[in-house]
Every structure is written in structure tokens, then in C-alpha cells.
Amino acid sequence: MDATLLGLIGIGVMLGAILFLNMSPGFAMALVGFLGIAALRTPSLGGTLANTAVGAEFWALFSNYGLTVIPLFILLGEVVHHAGYSEDLFRAAERWFGHRRGGLAVTTVLASAGFAAICGSNTATAATMSAVAIPPMQRAGYHPALKAGAVAAGSTLGVVIPPSLVLVVYGLHTGQSIGKLFAGSLVPSVLLVLGFVATVLILCRRHPEWGPGGAASTWREKFAALPKALDVVVLFTVVMAAMFSGKVTPTEAAGVSALLGLGVCILRRRLTWRLFTMALRDTLRISCMVFMIMAGAVIFGRFLTLTRLPFMVAETIGGLDLPGPLILMAMLGVYILGGCVMDSLAFLLVSLPIFMPLVTRLGYDPIWFGQVVCLVTTLGAITPPVGVCCFVVAGTARDVSVAAAFRGALYYLPAYLVAIAALLLWPEGTVLRLADLVR
Asked: What are phi and psi of 152, to 5 degrees?
């Protein structure tokens, strides 16, 4: 069988196993990749090659010192989460904005942004903010679509705002600087937060009954709530300052921030031994999930490389004499569709071996491309049929249906499209200028 055809069949089988057999993305990619490598040679030689390739890829992946940045950032987020800082962020924002029409939804977006700044995971942000933000909005009589949409859309900021796990994995997989990726994501993050806030205000202007205002807080209450959220600001500042300085590696910055976060929580008497063990357990669970996806993607990527499918795609499309922006739009369309039917991290790792040679051939900056892809694939977290953030919100808040979560999240798609358009039209100002400041 032709190797290229085998590669296409492998992609189809892998997607079918994930979508229709509900197989874990990491396991599906590893299994199809192993069988595909074995099928590329004679039965006797193929098995030996597959065993050698799998062992070599696993060893190369898990012996990579830079990979420790993932569990360290996850540990930081879990420690801060179990210490209750997510509630402090929400209460602080509520004191300042909760009295306005739609203020609790704005509070949810801002608190999600603050929690995402030390979490890095959209599902963790969705689960946490659902438990914190949904009950107050329910008591205030908020419309189901407004409250569910604010939490679902706000939780996607966990993938965009550094330390984003998707950007970390992208950097490790493509050999790009994680510090530059984090710096380049600051402007897109601000654009999204402002876009989400504007969406809430527009919805409440058109439907005043959706988000009734609450009681106003005094100036003393407003300023008294700020110190409780200051620790999160300090932790985020430490991470970004360390990255911009160029004096520490991303792994060292993650280690320092995790240690600092642990120390702050202990000094504030917010972390008991029981909460600490729960944070370690959740860190281990999430890290294993991410590593399994990465391991499967590496094996599947080796299989695609052996079939030469990525190079054939790059050569074929590059020889069509099409303008680069048109090819880029086609790639982004694939990412949007892929993010709708697969986990964003899994689809990112599946697609990079195919598209990165094409991106390099077209001359696009990999740091900028990573930001664009991160935004585009994140759309899948709030769009059907996967929409993992919407399912998490509906599963955590019993009074919110999945349909209401999806319907509410769709109102925030224009904000995403505006942010993506800004990155496409002004790459220097939105990404590259800040990224170049990282030494």
C-alpha cells in the first residue's frame, strides 16, 4: 500500500476512534501510530521498527527536562485553586462591578481572567468559576444564557492567558521559546477580556432583564476586597517578569512561581494538609492526561513523518501558486472544524506535523502562528458538538442546561473573531513586538 494513502487512512481511523468509539485521544493516536508504523514495513521488520520507534519516542519525550514546566504550572494553579483564591477574585470584582446591570457577568469574566493567569487550563477554570459564580447570578435572577455563557466563555481564557498549557505544549512541540509565546499572548488576552466585557454590556443593554443590578458597595468595601486578590497579581507578575528578564528558563520560572504560590498559601493559613494532598492529586491527574496526549501525538507524528504526508501536503499546496493569506485561511478553517470535534490540545498536536512545514514554507512567524492557532482552536471549547467548557458548566451547575450553556457561549464568538482578525491584520503590534522583548 502507498505510504501516503496509509497516512490518510491512519488519520481517518484515529479520528473515528476518538469521535465514535469515545477512545482517549492520547491512546487513539498512540495505537494508530504504532500500528501504522508497523504496517509501513514487512510484518517482521515492521513490528521491530514500531517497537523501537515507540520506545525511542517515549524516552525522548519523557526525558526532556523542559517538560517539567507543565506539572509545575499545573501545581501552581491547583494550589491557588484549593486555597480559595478564585472566590477572592470573584468577590473583589463583585465589589467594584456587581451593582451595575450585568455586573455579575462582568465580574465572572474578570475573575476568570485572574484565575486563568495562574491556572492555564480552560476546564479547571470552567469547573472553578461555575461553582463560584453561578450561585450568585442565580440568586440575582440572571438569565440562564447570560450566566452560563459568561462562565463558559470566560473559562476559555485559561488557554489564552499565560501560563497557558496549550502554548507550553506548542512551544515544546515546535521548539519555540515559551517565554516569547507567553509575552506574545498578552495583547490577545486583553482583547478577549475587553471583548467579553463588551459582549455582556451589549446583551444587557438589549435585554435589561437578563442581568439586573445589585446593591452598591461602599468605597471602603471596594478597597478592602483588593488585598485578598493581590496575591494572584503578584504570582502572575513574578512569572511574566521572570520570562521577560531572560535570566531564568521557563522551567525555573514555573518552579519559582509554584514554590512562591505554595509559600504564600501556607503563610496566609489558607492551605491545610488535606487541601495540599488534593492539589497534588489533581496535579498528577491533569499532568498524566496532558502527557498521554503528548506521547500519543509524538508517536502519531512519527508515523505521519514516515509516510511523508506532511511534506507532500506542503509541496502540493505550495505548488498551487495560491496567495499565502488564502492558504492561511484554509488552515485556520481546518483548525476551527477540528477544534469543534476534538480536544483542542489533541487536535493541535495532531495537526502540527502536517501544517508546520507549510507554515515554514510560507514564511509565517511560528510565535505569531502559535497565538492565532491557540485562539482558533479554543473556539472548539464553546462550540458544539464537543464544547468541553459548556459541558463542564452544565455539569457543575445543576440549574443550567447544556443547551443554555451553548446558546450563551455563542454570543461571545464575535469577540473571538475580532481578536483573531486583529492578530491577522496587525501581527507586529498584537504579538511580535512584545515577544521580541523577551531575551
From this structure: -65, -45
Is the distance from CB of 318 to CB of 361 less than 8 angstroms?
Answer: yes
AA letter at 187 = V
Q: What's the pLDDT score for residue 197?
A: 92
Give the start-end residues of each E strand in 340-389. Answer: none
Distance of CA 226 to the CA centre of its chain: 27
For 63, the 3-state DSSP assignment is: coil
Burial environment of residue 289 by CB neighbours within 10 A (0 to 12, 13 to 18, 19 or more): middle
Cα distance between residue 382 and residue 388, in whole Å: 7
pLDDT digits (tens, 9 = 90+) for 233-269: 888 887 778 777 767 777 888 888 888 888 888 888 8
Instruction: Give ∠ CA 97-100-102 in degrees, rounded to 5.
Output: 90
Establish if 9 belongs to a structural domain.
Answer: no
**SS (HEC) of 172-183:** HHHCCCHHHHHH
- List, for residues 284-301, the tens digit of each pLDDT value: 888 888 888 888 888 888
Q: Round to whole Å and give the CA distance between 298 and 287.
A: 16
Tell me how far apart the alpha carbons of residues 82 and 267 are, in angstroms, rounded to a whole number: 15
Which parts of the chain have pLDDT scores under 70? 1, 41-51, 53, 120, 246, 318, 341, 386, 398
How many independent structural domains does the chain possess? 1
Q: How far is it, in rounded angstroms, from Cα 318 to Cα 216?
A: 59
- Tell me the pTM: 0.81
pLDDT at residue 194, as a whole number: 94
Is position 318 within any domain? Answer: yes
The residues, any chain, with a CB within 8 Å of residue 127's CB and separated by 6 or more, are 392, 396
Q: What angle do CA 400, 97, 409 make, to 5 degrees?
A: 30
Closest CA to 144 of 384, 414, 406, 385: 406
The three three-digit cell numbers of residue 306, written as one number: 514516515
For residue 405, give the C-alpha cell. 450553556
Cβ atoms of residues 381 and 156 within 8 Å: yes
All three cell numbers of 202, joined, read 451589549
Name the DSSP letter for residue 217: P
What's 382's DSSP letter? G
Q: Is 26 within the bounds of a domain? A: no
Residue 399 counted as domain residue = yes
Q: Which domain holds residue 205?
A: 66-435
Angle (CA) 362 321 330, round 5°: 60
Query: CB within 8 A of 139, min separation 6: which ones?
Result: none
Residue tagged 489558607 (cell numbers): 270
